[in-house]
Structure formats: structure tokens, C-alpha cells
Amino acid sequence: MRMDLKSLALPGVQHLQPYQGGKPLDELERELGISGAIKLASNENPLGLSELAKVAIEASLENGARYPDGNGFYLKRRLAEKLAVSVSQLTLGNGSNEVLELLARGFLGQQHNAIIAEHAFVVYQLVITAQNATAIVVPASSWGHDLPAMAAAVNEHTRLLFIANPNNPTGTWVSLASIKALLQELPDTVLVVVDEAYFEYVDQPGYGSALELIDDYPNLVVTRTFSKAYGLAALRIGYSVSHPDVADILNRLRQPFNVNSPALAAALAVLDDDDYLRRSIGVNRDGYNQLVTGFDSLGLAYIPSAGNFIAVQVPGDVSAIYEALLRQGVIVRPVALYGMPHHLRVSIGLPHENQRFLDSLGRLLVDRDTA
Ligand SMILES: *Cc1c(COP(=O)(O)O)cnc(C)c1O
């Protein structure tokens, strides 16, 4: 009898579901026999790469035959300056996804658990499960994280608690005061990871970066990314700010050259590209208003979002609507996997992209009503 190779993998790993990414745009167009498809499926920056980043990437290729700077010296120095933290508090990752994974690898074994919220970013569940640790999923409240309930779920085996602020795919956020209250309540044996992937976009009363609390709570870890408002998703670069001891653990675990040279150069460039960041935020705010106005006139409920995407509730067979949108060349993201079988998540695009999505969706709903 042949050996079942999969049964040789660690138990947690056997339970993992591979992350479902979308097809390449070209391939989708080929399959559907269409052209000019638009992708509003991965919360990418619709402005495309910043010009300053492009120049920096090209210049970095001059040294393309050499290993990158494994310590990210220049980027960390600039980040430390900008964030008013010390270099020893920073860990760079191949996307902030990698930092999340390093946290799980460093602090979770099979005897441990980590606390996450219902409808939270799926990567938390993945990295916890891969460690053979237990994910304790705390029911959401109005789609958002219920921080008091998450605190109540902590026990002596808890090592990590993840807060996505704002959360993807719901777009919900929690106040800085509520994070502070949580930190005050928890034992400092629980690392509280506040994932601020969409931080730059947020303009909500009571919202604030948990970085403000970093000096007071050694168990606080804040993660950020260059993939969203800074428009570097393809380059794969993100970071965490933590106590230096936590950073030391993460830096021991990471691959020596986990962040590549074009990514380091691009991140350093965009960090001071204030014009690009301002335009990212402006396009996003306008697109948000355009989309929710459209949803209102279509009579569709949506979850108010602080990020660069919106979860909108569609009537009837959501996967049929998703497929029909695809055939019209509009790619969005179904979120049944997140326990949201009645929603689609649409990333906020350029004005003409948002309009095309609204028009397509509107047509499908009319067809459905008249069918
Ligand atoms: C997009 C996203 C990230 C960032 O991922 P990268 O690996 O940095 O590209 C992290 N957290 C959440 C909640 C996200 O939606």
C-alpha cells in the first residue's frame, strides 16, 4: 500500500486550507473571452505604483546580483524616526503577513491558544493552526470585534490575541480607548497584536493607532503594511513595532534575507511620498462615498467600513451574482469563508471602476427581479 504522504504532515498543517487567491486577470479574460476586466478583489491601491517607488525600484536593480541588506538599515532608521520608536522595536517582514506568522511561530505551541474574532482576517486562523495551537474564535458584535468578550476568553494557555483594526473583510474598527481598556485588563503574558494594515485610511472619531500605547504595554505589538495605502502589494513588505525583546525573538526566526532589495528601496521612497499617500486617501474617501451612495440607491445594506473596501449584502444567490459579475469583467471577493455568506467584498477603485461595478450589479439585480 502506498504511504499517505499528507498524513506525515503535522496535525495542524493537515487541517489548513490553502489561501484562495484569485486567478491572474489575463487568464480570467482569456477564459471568459472578454477584455478590460477590472479587479476590485484584493484591496489593492487603485492608483498603481507611486512614481518615486518606481524610480527607487529601478535603481535598486543595479545591485540585483547581491543579497539585500538583511537588517533593512535605512528603512528601519527612517521608520524609527517617523514613528518615534527605536530601531530595536522594529521587525520587517515579507508583507505584514510574515510578521503575523513569525509571531505565531515564536509564541505558540500546541499547548497554547490564541484569541481571534469571528469574521476576522483569515491569516490569523492560518498561522495559529499551523502551530498546532488552538484558535479561540469569539463571536462578533455588529460584525466587529467584541473586545470585552475577547478579554473574557483569555485563559492561562493564551499567548496571542489578534485585533484587526480596521478588520478585513468587515471594515469595522475599535476605538483606541477600548484597546487601552483591554490592555489594562489582560495579564502581560498575552501578546496583543493590533493589525493596522488600513490605518492610513481611517478617519473615524475615537480611532487611534495603538502605537500611542507601545511604551506603556510591553505585550503590545502593532503591525503595519506597505501593501495598501502605500501601494506596494507586489513588493511584499510590512513591519511590526513591539517591545525590543519581542522584536529580538521575531528577528531570530525570520529568514536572514526575508525582505528583498526592491521592496526595501520602494518602501523607503514611498514613506516620504506624501503626495501619493494623500491621493490614496482622497481617492479612497471619494470612492467610498460613490459606492455607498450607489448601494443606497440600489437598496443594498452594507457594513460601514474604515478601510479601502466595503462588504455589501446582496439578495439571493451570492455566488451566482459573483459569477455573473465575473462574466461582465468585474472581479470582487466572496466572503462566505469568513462566515459572511450573504456579502460580497468590493475593494474601492477609481471612479470609473466603482461606477462599472455599480452598473453591473444594478443590472444583475434588475434582471433577477424581473426573471
Ligand atoms: C492586506 C492585509 C494585511 C497586509 O498583508 P501584507 O502581507 O502586508 O500584504 C494584513 N492584515 C490585514 C487585515 C489585511 O487585510
Explain the layout of strands and helices.
Blueprint: H1 11-14, H2 25-32, E1 38-39, H3 51-60, H4 73-83, E2 90-93, H5 96-107, E3 113-117, H6 122-130, E4 134-138, H7 147-152, E5 158-164, H8 176-185, E6 191-195, E7 220-225, E8 238-241, H9 244-253, H10 261-271, H11 274-298, E9 302-303, E10 309-313, H12 318-327, E11 330-331, E12 333-334, E13 343-347, H13 351-370
Parallel strand pairs: 1-11, 3-4, 3-5, 5-6, 6-7
Antiparallel strand pairs: 2-8, 7-8, 9-10, 10-13, 12-13
This protein binds pyridoxal-5'-phosphate (PLP).
Integer-rounded radius of gyration = 21 Å
> What is the CATH class of the largest domain?
Alpha Beta
The secondary-structure element order is HHEHHEHEHEHEHEEEHHHEEHEEEH
Strand order of the largest sheet: 2-8-7-6-5-3-4
Share of helix, binned: 25-40%
Instruction: Give the biggest sheet.
Output: 7 strands, mixed
CATH topology of the largest domain: Aspartate Aminotransferase, domain 2
Tell me which ligands are bound: pyridoxal-5'-phosphate
CATH homologous superfamily grouping of the largest domain: Type I PLP-dependent aspartate aminotransferase-like (Major domain)
Unreliable sequence segments: none
How many H/I helical runs? 13
What would you call the shape?
Answer: globular
Tell me the strand percentage band: 5-15%
According to DSSP, the number of beta strands is: 13
Report the CATH architecture of the largest domain.
3-Layer(aba) Sandwich
- Which secondary-structure class do the elements indicate? alpha/beta
